[in-house]
Amino acid sequence: MTIWRNALLALGGLLAWLLFWYRDTALAMAGIWHSSDTYAHGYVVPIISLWLIWRQRQVLRGLTPKPGWLAWPLMAGCAALWLLGDLVAVNAATQFALVAMIVLTVPAVLGWQVAGALLFPLGFLFFAVPIGDFMLPQLMEWTADFTVLALRASGIPVFREGQNFVIPSGNWSVVEACSGVRYLIASVTVGCLFAYLSYQSTLRRLLFVLVSILVPIVANWLRAYIIVMLGHYSGNTIATGVDHLIYGWLFFGIVIVLMFMIGARWAQHPTPQADAAALAASVAVATKADAPVRLSATVLAAAAVALLVAVPHAINWHLVQGQNQAVPVVTAVAPAAGWQAASAPLADWRPAFENPSAQLQASYTAASGTAVDVYVGYYRNQNYQRKLVSSQNVLVKSNDPHWSRVGGGGKNITFQQQALAVRTTELRRLQPDAAGHEARLLVWQFYWVNGHLTASDALAKIYGALGRLMGQGDDGAVIMVYTPKQADASAVLQSFVEAHGAAMLAAFQQTRGQH
Q: For residue 97, what pLDDT is reported?
């Protein structure tokens, strides 16, 4: 027991050291648990994991803790992932890396045999990482597809644009709360725990986890359809306000309870004989394979890992010292031949990009009378409150009272004699203007990051991280050019970027060089 006491003391000290250095990441993760109902289960995940570890105490007593050196390079990889994520302020990367480092402290200090006995309890900790928002667009699209299809199958005519659709009794929209991501994450978390505790067969466990993924998705589709039908046949007197959410949770609760009741019919509870056999086997293996471990080896392992996890912070501190602290100033490019500056924007829309270091909106008109507006959001010294690429940065918020996104995709254009893939989005003003005209815009969107052009969020993050690692800073900008939606809208935007592309790139380089 002396070996276990020393090993647990070393493990506890290493975990305290790890949480000290990565306390900002841990607090940010807890902040998301507190602010988002979708991830509120994160509070109980560590408690459940500790309880699961406690259940394995009889098995652990038969094992001998022994440092697993292979965990060191894995810890180094996780520390590198944390550093890259922190350089470009990606919460998902830094928080996942922190939990992975916490998990890897077990094999690093206690060994892989101990970690193997605690495989599920340790793996369950990853449910504390608030990851899932990336699924929102796809889940919303599927929900809208099913709802419209089901309404038409029910004999109700539907006109759809994007996530908005109109039926004879009123207008409906599929927003983030309708995506079902909250149901999905809750179902998978509880489903994995239920499968682990209820089944011994790996196949049954995997099948139940698969069911816990599919059931909430399909249940959410049915929930959305039922709510629209309730609103339609009640004259929009029920299922259109707060009761909309109440009915949704009630329906989901009934479905999930039924799922677990059915799953419990095939439960495989372990027998005392099986438990005794497993414990005897683990003790036999430990007695045969493990030799006494010196205290110095355990201390060396903990000290080496402690040094390893502190390295990213030293690198980060060095990079922060070299940042450009000047406030950037973005200037509008002069109109090219055949274009002139306009005195007023062509619409009252502005993208919902949060906390740019500088921003610019400029308007231009061509000799033919066509109008193009440009929006630039420039970012420097990015952090978790101010970053170029973020799930919070969108063209239109879902609750925007004036504008709605009704379509989108991608397009290959020519920019400075080179091919560039841009994002295309069609926006519609929800209310007609004073003259009764319905406003629609075609928007092209792409990023400029330290001289690189891309429309990819991932590449924009990579360019930003590489720029910081090379001491070039993380300057980046989102560029949007847009014009009224009409038959030749794409040709108008292509003409504009061909005429002004070189000047725009020069303006960004000039802003980047400001000190």
A: 97
Nearest residue to 323 (alpha-carbon basis) of 462, 463, 472:
472
Instruction: Determine the Cα–Cα distance for residues 464 and 381; give it in Å rounded to an integer.
Output: 10
Q: Which helix (H) or strand (E) holds 480?
A: strand 476-484
**353's tokens:** 């990009």
- Between CA 93 and CA 423 the distance in angstroms is 25
Residue 84: HSE in the Cβ half-sphere, 13 Å Cα cutoff: 15
Single out the residue of 168, 120, 114, 162 nearest to residue 141, CA to CA: 162
Report pLDDT digits (tens) over 179-188. Answer: 888 889 999 9
* SS3 readout for 393-450: CECCCCCCCCEEEEEEEEEEEEECCEEEEEEEEEEEECCCCCCCCCCEEEEEEEEEEC
Residues of the chain with pLDDT under 50: 272-291
Q: How many CA atoms lie within 13 A of 316 on its CB side?
A: 20
CA distance 152 to 26: 47
Express each pLDDT in 216-275 by its tens digit: 999 889 888 988 888 888 877 765 555 566 666 777 778 888 888 888 888 887 654 444
For residues 257 and 264, give the distance between their C-alpha atoms in angstroms, rounded to a whole number. Answer: 11
Cβ–Cβ < 8 Å for 258, 212 = no
Contact by Cβ (8 Å): 427, 443 = yes
Q: What is the DSSP secondary structure assignment for residue 241, as one 8-state letter?
A: S
CB atoms within 10 A of CB 139: 22
Helix or strand (DSSP H, E) at 376? strand 371-379
Contact 476, 388 (CB under 8 A): yes
Helix and strand numbers (H, E) in the chain are: 16, 11
Start-to-end Cα distance in the chain: 62
pTM of the entire structure? Answer: 0.84
Neighbours of 37 (CB within 10 A): 10
Burial 76-102 (b: 16+ CB within 10 A, else e): bebbebbbbbbbbbbbebbbbbbbbbb
The three-state secondary structure class of 205 is: helix
- Give whole-number Cα distances, 346 to 310, 341, 372, 440, 448, in Å: 52, 12, 8, 11, 24
Which DSSP state fits 352?
Answer: B
- Going by C-beta distance under 8 Å and a sequence separation of 6 or more, which residues neighbour residue 98? 18, 22, 25, 26, 29, 82
Looking at residue 242, its pLDDT comes to 53
> Measured between alpha carbons, how far is 205 from 207 in angstroms, rounded to an integer?
5
pLDDT of residue 486: 86
Q: Which two tokens stand for residue 169?
A: 């009794």
Q: Are 151 and 99 in contact (CB under 8 A)?
A: no
